[in-house]
Structures are given as C-alpha cells and as structure tokens.
Design a protein that fits this description.
heterodimer, A: 685 residues, mainly alpha, Serine Threonine Protein Phosphatase 5, Tetratricopeptide repeat, two-stranded antiparallel ribbon, 25 helices, B: alpha+beta, Rossmann fold, Elongation Factor Tu (Ef-tu), domain 3, 3 domains, seven-stranded mixed beta sheet, 26% strand, globular, binds zinc ion, CID domain-containing protein (chain A), PCF11-like (chain A), phosphatidylinositol binding (chain A), RNA polymerase II complex binding (chain A), ubiquitin binding (chain A)
C-alpha cells in the first residue's frame, strides 16, 4: 500500500479539521492527475459524515483557484459525485449552477469543452452503475444547460466564436482573466470524467472489457432525431471507454470531442432539416461500424455555432515564425503524429490564405505530409492560392489535386445523402480538414518501405518528422525534445500490459489489436499447465538457419504473415536437423470424430478428453496423433519412436519431448495468429 | 514510507518528493514497506539489488524507462541481482517496495541526453541508408570496465526497436552472456519488444513467453579474457562478423537498422595498440565508435580511426565520439560478476519465475562423448601475436592461426564437475578450426562424473539427445557447484 493511499480514517476528527486537510491537499491538485483525484475521492468517500464541510471546501476551491486549476478540481467534483454519490450530490448540487457557471466564464475554450462534456454525463446514470438515475437530477443540470445555450446564442449573434483562443491577438476584455490552458503535458493517467475512476485502475481491463453498454433511458425513439441522439450518446459512452484505455489516442479523443459537440448540437433543440439529419445519421452509423472511422463534426448549413477547429490557433501561431526547412515542432507542442491530426491542414490553409506567398520549405514544414512533393508541385499550389482572393479549403483541395498531390478518386463531389453508411466516405458537405486529411494520408509514403514485401510493415514514425543529427561531438550535448517525442508522444497508443507503443494510425491500431490478442493468447497458454508446465529451452539455431531467419514480432504479426516468413526462412532452429520444421507434440492435434469426447491412449492407457479449439472451430484432441488408426498421445508416440518402440513406456513415464516430425509441415510461430499456437483459447469440455 | 499517527494521503503530511533526499547513495533500505517517489523530468531512480533481495517497482503516473524499455503503468516489475536505473524524460511517480542495497534519485543525467542524441544520430543514418544498399550504422561501443557500455547498447537497442527498427546486437564479452550463459558470443537481431526486467528477454523455449522470443546465434568463447587467447578470440570475432553480415544481406530491414557491438573492458588496451578494437572495426565494417569513460581511449581511437586519418588503412575514417558514462554506473566486483554468471547459468536451464523451464537429465557413457578442453592462457601463440609497440600504427592484420593444441580431446574427468559444456554444431571428430568456429547448439551442465563406471550425468536444456557432436569446455564460466540439488 502506498503511503499516499487512504489508510487513516478521520473518524473522530472534527469537520473543520477534515475540511482544512482536504482544502490543503486541494491546493496541491495542480493538474489533471488521476491518481491524486482518486486519492481525494477515496478520502471523500471515507468521510461522508463530513460531506457537507468537504463539499463546501471543494466549491470554494473551484471558485477561488486559478483558471488553470479549475478543471482538475471540477474533475474531482465529478469523480466524487459519480464514485461516492450521495450525500455529495446533494451538497454539491445545491450550488452547482454557481460553481459551474462561475468557473465556465473564466476558463478557456478547451476547458469549456471539457466542462460541457462533463455536464452531459451528469444527465446520465453513472456508466456501469446499476442505478438508473442520472448523476444529478435534471432540475439541477437543466438551468446550467440553458445558460450555456443562451451564451452561445449571444455569441453567435455577434458573429464571434464563443471562446476565441488566438494567442497572438489581444485578449478580449471578457477573457482578461484567462490563463493558459492546463499544461499539455500531464501524466498519462489523467482523470477522465464519465468513468468511475479509482476502482478501475488499468491492469486487467482491456478496452474490449471496459465498453459500457449503453442502455437508453428514454422510451423508444419516436422520431429520427431521438434515434440519432440515442446512437450518438451510445457512441459517446463507447468512445469514452476506448479513449480511457488509450488516452494518448488523439484520433479517439478527437472523435469523442466531435461526438460530444454533435450531441450538444442535437440537444440544443434547433431545427435540423431532414436531409441534414439523414447525413448526420449516416455518418454516425458509419462511425459506429468502425471503431476507428474518421469523423469530424461538420457544420451544417445554417448552424454556425460550430467553433473553429480547436487546434487551429496553435497551428497558426506556429506559422508566424519563419519556418526553416525540416523545422521541428517546438518541444512538446505537436508530436509528429499530431500533424496528421484533425486541424493540421487548417494550418496549411491558413498559411496559403494569409496573403504572402509562402516558400516551399514553409509549406513542407507546415504539412509534413507534403514533404515529398516536388518543388514544382508546391509552387503551383502556392501560385493558385495567391491568385484566388478567397482561398478556401475547397480551393486548396482542388489545387492539390490539380498538381497531382491528391489522387482524384479521393475527391467526391459534395454529396447527396447516401443511404448506405460507408465509414471514411465523405457524405457530409465539404469539410476541408477531414477530407484533406484523408486524401493526404493516401499520398503519404507507406510507413514501411522495407523492400521485403512479405515482411509485415513496421511502426515507423513518419521519417519526415525526425531531425537529422550528424555524428559529431558537437551534436551530442544539446537536448532534443523531439527525439523524446518520437519515442513517446508520436506513438500515443500504448499497451497497458507491456508498455509497448503504437502509432495512432489505422495500422498502429491494427497492430495494437493483434498485440493485445497476442498477450491474451500467451497469458492463456501460460496459465494452461498442460502447455507451460513442460516447457524447455530450445536449441540455438545453426549458422545457416540464423542467417536465413526472418525476424519478426510475433505479437503484431498475423498467422499468414508468420507462416509466410517461416516458409521464407525455412528454418527450424529447435531441431538440430536443419531445415526440418515440425510441430511440437504438445501442439499436435487430431480432430475428434463426431460424438467422441473421450479416448484412451493405447500407449500409456491414460484417458484423453477432447477440447474445443476456437481457432479451428472444432473439437480436437490435443497432444494427439493417429497411430494405426488410433488416437494416441503425440508425446507418447514420440517417446516410442525415440526409444525404438519399446522401452520407457511405463505408465507415467511419459516425457515431453520433441522429435523431428516433418510430416506436419512447418511449425508456426508460437502463438501467432489463428491456429498458430496450439492449445490457446481452449475451452475444456 | 508509512507515516506514524494520522496518515492521511495527499493531505500534505507526506511529501514523497522530499523523502528521497534523505536516502543518499548507499543507504540500505530493508523495509518491506511501500513508498512512492516523485521524479522530475530528466531524472532517474537508481537501485542496487543483491541476489538475495527482491525489489519491486511500479509506475504510478508519468513515463519511465529502464535502459530504453518503457515501463507500463501500474505493472509491478521485480528485480533481483540487478543494478538498475529507471529514467524519466517527463517526470513520473514510482511505487517502490522490497529490499535494495541502495536506492536514490539521480539528478545528473546529462549522459542520457547524449545517449538519446546518439540514438538520433543512428536514426538519421538509418534514414539516409534507406533505399540504398549501404546499410545502417554499425556501432562499436568500447570503454573500461563498469562504465555503462552494456547499458548504452541496451538503451540504443530499446529505442531503436521503439522506432520500428530491427538492429543486430552483438556481444563479445564472454563473462556476461546475452540471451545465453557466460562463455558465449551472441549475435541477435532485435525486432520486438524488449523486457523491462530481463533486458533482451528470452531465447527460444518450447512454451509461451511473456515477451516475444529473441533468437540468437551463439558462439563459444571459453575464455574470460580476450588476452587469454587473442588468436582464438579474433577468429571468433571474424566468424561472428561473417554470420552477422550475411544475415544482413538476407534481411534488408535488419541491414538498414545496423548493428551495435558490446565489448569487454579489457579491449581498452593501449599496450596492444588496441589490436582487438582494430580487428572488430575491420571485421564488422564499423561506421561509428563510441567510447565511454576513458579520455585517453577516446583520444587514441580518434587519432587512429577518426575522420582526419583519411589515408589510414581503415579508409576514410570513422567518427569516434566520447559519450558520458551514467552517474549511476557502479563498479561490479568479481563477486557480483560471479553471482551474475551463476544466475545466467541457472536461468538457462531453469528459466525465470515468469517462464519456468524443465531441464532434462542425460547419462552418457564416456565412449559416446567427444569432449574437448579449450586450452587457454600463457601459450606462446598468445604472446607472439600480442606484443606490438604502442607507437606502431596500423600494422596489417594477420589471420589468426589455430594451433593444434587449441582444443585438446580428453576423456571426461572430475575436473569437469560443475562446468558448462558447449555442444557444437560439428561432428565429434572435427578438426580444431571447425570446432573453434562452429556455432553452439546448446550448453550442458556436468552434474556428475563417474570415472569408475565411465559415465557422465548431464543436465540438458532439451529432452532430445544431441548425437555425436563436439563438446567443448574451458575456463569460462567457472564451475557452479549448487546448480542441482
Ligand atoms: Zn503489450
Ligand atoms: Zn499416452
């Protein structure tokens, strides 16, 4: 137990003392640290008799603390009401309007979005909870919602985004108190609202296991809008769970944010014409079909309350400086992968639109995706941009296409609503960022250009984003945060079991899925004594086998790729007889004849039971071979073959041994993909 | 650190960040209590755990890595017989428990910046090699004992893998095995996740493994020092290089990723005019030399191999860089190395707690066996190839000659008891050259020699017999007495 984890009880202490201590530690809550928030939540839970005093301290803290620390404090509030519930919901509910709105007016747009997301979840039951009631009663939440809608309407009418965040523009008076958003570098375990936080610390839960089933509270939808709303909120819950599992996945984060925005739009009660609604619906279904489908919420004609891409200001401020060729994003600001994130091309667009003609290096620096484009191509794009008085996203796309930087097929005309939801297809009215992004990803160099086509692609961060460092003593001393970035932030998708990272690309996600599956299968096999108990070391390879060996990562390689590689290297290093691949006896199986679940090995006379092998979709006898029409233990048979058919067959003397068994063909790599590692996913009869 | 009295977490009573200041280097921590440590960005947590202790680390928040291998959040990692450094680029919170000889926060971590920059240099070189047939950087790491050479190689390997590379790692320090017991040279390509606790993880076994297996090519170097038999040592280097370079021709991914060679401190030998280093440089076509620790070594190597020597025998010259040794690099005395050797031998047969293995017992009659003893030390052959004047530069390398008495065929004796015997991929009646150059199939442990009944009991890693193959043993590793029983 950690010294900081809750041990001591405060029973006996006075409310004032408890509140004072609680207030002290609140002041230490600087950033969104899940650990701290969990700790404080536990303290609140253990001191419910002082809930009133604690609630008061928390409210006061949210009101008094600097804007940059308000969000962590609000997350704490969120965590307490969700994880502890009453009586905190009662005490904190009383002043919730003031607590929330006062903070809301003082924080920046990013924090506002987070607060809006939080508010949404307060209208719903705690995810995973049996209690169907919302976190806060509607009469507590609704006034806040109304106030927010009103504020947005006002902002819209004045044709001004509600929370512009242009760092290089003078601060509007309204936002004079605004502080910088919370540091972008927070520990990777920020507290996420919407989730009962502290009791579900990682470790066991895989993303799959943490999906919350969305159970709609409402009666069946009586119209289209409700159906869409329901679907959206279901997706939100799902994405939130995914995002909780992959907090670094910016795409997931973006999707989540987009969904929350969409939900807000839908809930705002504005009239949405049926065609637009259908489009939204298609898009949402598309998103639901593919967990990683790209979605960017799209402004509907006539609904201008959508805000500019939140990442735009940062991008813009980057371009103000003259960008050197191959310049790197400033430390910690934009990891390379993020340059492909939504909003990245807003920057390119802004660069082209700001009047002065940017240089090729600038364009390259702005959009690393275009790094490999020729100077002539980029130059044409610039000229066309300069020629157009109002160079918008559509023009940019068109220009890029004309100059061969975007394949034409990627471009679809602004669409009619399509009845069939197709993930990744552009069915919404033209949207520069998302479309351009998609298109660009198709002209990016493949992440792996290994020259060996059978070799599975590799997680290479885009090479264009890496600094060139000469091999000189002078280059040794200077700290280059961008190198750290390539190892961490650029690969935001981390395996919670082994810490391995993956890119937040589709490929990265696919690999991670395979990788998690590999952990799962491996752990199952380790847990299966029949497989792991008799393990022994293999012989080392011969020189020739090693030279031909195709090294690959079994945790991210499919069975097909693995067997192709095994065939290519034709190596079986566990056998001293080189070039002969074989399965270990333990991995051999015989399909169980229909109706046969038990069998007696005619060598050792022990009983064998059939088991269902999921990879094979069949009932099989493991560690089995056919000998003269009878099913026997493969190990027994191997023993018999080794000892010339006679000796050493006394009952119980069976040894696990590997003998060359070339007849069964190449041995697939351990635990690779389907059907590779025998015995995985076994369900004993 | 459990707090007396009212122990309220997070209420300002416990300030973990201040607690480690009390723990200076060498402070022994015997308490089983769990404590947390806050580490600032670019600092590190150093610990020394002896072979009887268990030390556990859990990453609570932030990012942290151990020699280039990232820790996963909330996983408990255990160490025994280890001198470890947990480094954080971003800052982190660690939970520590168990026992350690010492543990403390290290704030002087400029070395890590240099090491990471080396990684950046290698990445740049790999990118440049992409699409060409030149291959990636081929790095030789040299320096005196206990300056962090292995840690540097491991870190570079870990970072490379994280960047999707598959570098080849070569170890020519026989005292410390890599994916093998001591007495080995190792060549391995590393293309999958390394292991927080075990570094390179585990070589192939018949069962499932926690970390993807790594498949090394092993040669037998039965001498604890290259100076014992420099000729044989050189020949083994030549052979290893041949296999590695062949491998790279077969595997473009690996070729582009390049290779890194870890060496014993004994190569830092001005008296021999760095003869062995020159041999490695030439056999592996080294493109970058990294020196740690010794300024003289750097100066000497730079003068000899550096870019200014454009006319040297090595061609256009090779960058030689001197990188800092880590503040946490600690002397590893003979006792520690001996225990480490024992641990590696034990793990070769019995695995680890995560991947336990079953060794097998084989009894063989003397007549079935072809046993050779590798002769070492004090041989005239050694002396003759090893007396060069320090000022003499670039004397041409002469191919080592195997003398007839390199490997002496013998009848098993009690002297073999507790020794490790290499099974060579060659017939029992092979000549000396073949025996010397053949790769290792596996190692046997001599658990019993019955000179009366003329039979030997071996502990073998594999249930299968090895047939008539040459069995070789020598001075390294030393006998282990308590492996069985
Ligand atoms: Zn993993
Ligand atoms: Zn049987």
């Amino acid at each position: 137990m950690s010294a900081r984890s809750p041990r001591g009880s405060l029973s006996g202490a006075s409310s004032a003392e408890v509140a004072e201590d609680f207030g002290d530690s609140l002041r230490d809550l600087q950033i969104n640290n899940r650990y701290e928030i969990s700790n404080l939540t536990v303290i609140a839970k253990e001191n419910t008799e002082h809930a009133q005093a604690i609630s008061k301290v928390l409210e006061e803290h949210i009101g008094m603390t600097s804007p940059s620390k308000k969000l962590p404090a609000l997350y704490l509030l969120d965590s307490i009401v969700k994880n502890v519930g009453t009586p905190y919901t009662v005490y904190l509910g009383r002043n919730l309007y003031n607590t929330f709105m006062q903070a809301y007016t003082l924080v920046d747009s990013n924090v506002r979005k987070s607060m809006e997301g939080m508010l949404k979840t307060w209208k719903e039951p705690v995810p995973g909870s049996m209690d169907p009631r919302p976190v806060f009663p509607p009469e507590t939440v609704r006034p806040i919602e109304n106030a927010l809608i009103k504020a947005k309407t006002v902002a819209m009418q004045s044709h001004r985004p509600i929370a512009p965040d242009y760092r290089n523009t003078p601060t509007p008076p309204n936002y004079a108190n605004r502080f910088a958003p919370p540091p972008t570098h927070t520990p990777p375990q920020p507290y996420q609202n919407f989730q009962p936080g502290f009791q579900s610390l990682p470790n066991a839960p895989t993303p799959q296991s943490t999906y919350y089933q969305h159970t709609p509270q409402q009666p069946p939808p009586n119209n289209e809008l409700d159906a869409v709303k329901r679907e959206v909120s279901g997706l939100i819950v799902q994405r939130q769970a995914q995002y909780d599992a992959n907090r670094h996945d910016q795409r997931l984060g973006g999707e989540l944010k987009a969904l929350l925005d969409l939900q807000q739009l839908l809930n705002a009660g504005q009239y949405i014409d049926p065609a637009s609604l259908q489009q939204i619906r298609d898009r949402v279904s598309g998103l639901a079909n593919g967990p990683s489908a790209q979605l960017r919420p799209t402004p509907q004609p006539g609904t201008p309350q959508w805000q500019p891409s939140p990442s735009f200001p940062q991008e813009a401020s980057q371009f103000v400086r003259p960008a050197a060729p191959y310049s790197q994003p400033p430390p910690g600001q934009q990891p390379p992968a993020a340059l492909l994130a939504p909003g990245a091309l807003d920057g390119l667009q802004a660069l082209l639109a700001n009047g002065q003609k940017p240089g090729t290096p600038q364009i390259r620096a702005t959009a690393p995706a275009l790094q490999s484009a020729s100077h002539a191509q980029l130059s044409n794009v610039q000229n066309q941009a300069a020629a157009a008085p109002q160079f918008n996203g559509a023009d940019l796309i068109a220009s890029l296409t004309r100059n061969g930087l975007l394949p034409k097929s990627q471009r679809q005309p602004p669409p009619h609503p399509q009845p069939t939801p197709v993930p990744n297809s552009s069915t919404l009215p033209f949207q520069p960022s998302a479309d351009l992004l998609r298109s660009l990803s198709s002209i990016l160099p493949p992440t792996s250009q290994t020259g060996t086509p059978t070799f599975p692609a590799i997680n290479l961060p885009p090479t264009t984003s890496k600094p060139r460092i000469p091999m000189t003593a002078a280059a040794l001393k200077q700290f280059r945060p961008e190198l750290v970035t390539t190892l961490y932030e650029a690969q935001p998708n981390q395996c919670s079991t082994c810490g391995r990272r993956f890119l937040s690309t589709d490929e990265g996600r696919t690999k991670k899925a395979r990788h998690l599956d590999w952990h799962f299968r491996t752990n199952q096999r380790i847990a299966d004594p029949a497989i792991s108990r008799g393990a022994h070391r293999d012989w080392y390879p011969t020189e020739i086998d090693w030279v031909r060996l195709k090294d690959y990562d079994p945790s991210t390689t499919t069975a097909e790729e693995a067997s192709a590689l095994a065939a290519a290297s034709n190596s079986q290093f566990s056998s001293p007889t080189k070039g002969k691949a074989h399965k270990r006896p333990e991995e051999m199986y015989v399909r169980a004849p229909p109706g046969v679940t038990r069998n007696t090995c005619s060598i050792c006379f022990e009983e064998m039971k059939s088991a269902y092998a999921e990879e094979l979709q069949e009932w099989v006898f493991w560690n089995a071979r056919l000998a003269q029409g009878k099913i026997v233990h493969a190990t027994c048979l191997a023993e018999m073959a080794k000892s010339g058919g006679a000796a050493g067959l006394g009952a119980g003397q069976r040894q696990r041994s590997a003998t060359p068994e070339s007849s069964l063909g190449k041995r697939k790599a351990d635990g690779v993909g389907l059907g590779g590692g025998g015995g995985s996913k076994l369900r004993m009869e | 650190m459990s707090l007396p009295g009212l122990s309220l977490p997070g209420l300002g009573l416990s300030q973990p960040s201040s607690s480690h200041s009390a723990l200076g280097p060498g402070t022994s921590s015997n308490s089983q209590s769990t404590r947390t440590e806050e580490l600032g960005a670019r600092t590190e947590w150093r610990f020394e755990v002896n072979f009887h202790q268990q030390y556990h680390v859990r990453l609570l928040s932030g990012n942290a890595e151990i020699f280039g291998v990232e820790l996963a959040l909330n996983q408990r990692y255990s160490f025994s017989g280890a001198k470890g450094v947990i480094f954080t680029w971003h800052g982190c919170q660690l939970e520590l428990s168990g026992d350690a000889e010492s543990e403390y926060a290290g704030l002087e971590t400029e070395y890590a910046v240099e090491w990471l920059n080396v990684h950046g240099m290698l990445e740049s070189a790999r990118d440049l090699a992409h699409g060409t047939n030149d291959g990636g950087p081929r790095v030789l790491v040299v320096g005196p004992e206990s300056v962090g050479k292995s840690s540097l190689v491991r870190s570079l390997a870990g970072w490379s893998v994280k960047c999707g590379r598959t570098p080849a790692i070569v170890n020519v320090d026989p005292r410390e095995g890599l994916l093998a017991p001591p007495g080995s040279f190792t060549a391995v390509t590393v293309g999958s996740q390394l292991d927080v606790e075990n570094g390179y993880g585990i070589a192939p076994i018949s069962g499932p493994t926690v970390t993807p297996i790594k498949t090394p090519l092993i040669y037998h170097c039965p001498y604890s020092s290259p100076t014992e038999r420099p000729d044989v040592y050189k020949a083994l280097i030549t052979r290893t290089a041949l296999s590695v370079l062949n491998r790279m021709e077969e595997d473009k991914v690996s070729k582009e990723s390049g290779l890194m060679i870890d060496t014993p401190g004994l190569l830092n030998d001005p008296k021999s005019n760095y003869d062995m280093i020159a041999h490695l440089v030439s056999e592996f076509s080294i493109t970058l030399i990294l020196t740690l620790g010794s300024e003289r070594l750097y100066n000497d190597l730079n003068r000899r191999f550096g870019p200014k020597q454009a006319a040297s025998a090595e061609g256009e010259g090779i960058p030689v860089l001197r990188v800092s040794k880590p503040g946490g690099a600690v002397e590893r005395d003979a006792g520690f190395l001996k225990q480490l050797a024992n641990q590696q031998i034990r793990q070769y047969f019995f695995g680890t707690s995560k991947e336990p293995l079953n060794p097998h017992s084989h009894i063989c009659g003397f007549a079935e066996l072809s046993v050779y003893r590798a002769n070492s030390a004090t041989l005239a052959a050694a002396a003759s190839s090893y007396t060069k004047d320090e000022d003499e530069d670039d004397s041409p390398y002469t191919a080592p000659k195997a003398s007839a008495d390199d490997f002496e065929k013998m009848t098993p004796t009690n002297a073999m008891l507790g020794r490790l015997v290499a099974i060579k991929y060659c017939d029992g009646d092979s000549d000396d050259f073949t025996i010397r150059d053949s790769a290792v199939m596996g190692f046997l442990y001599v658990s019993e020699v019955d000179e009366q009944k003329k039979r030997v009991r071996f502990l073998a890693p594999h249930p299968q017999r090895w047939g008539d193959k040459a069995l070789v043993w020598g001075g390294c590793p030393e006998a282990v007495t308590d492996l069985v029983g």
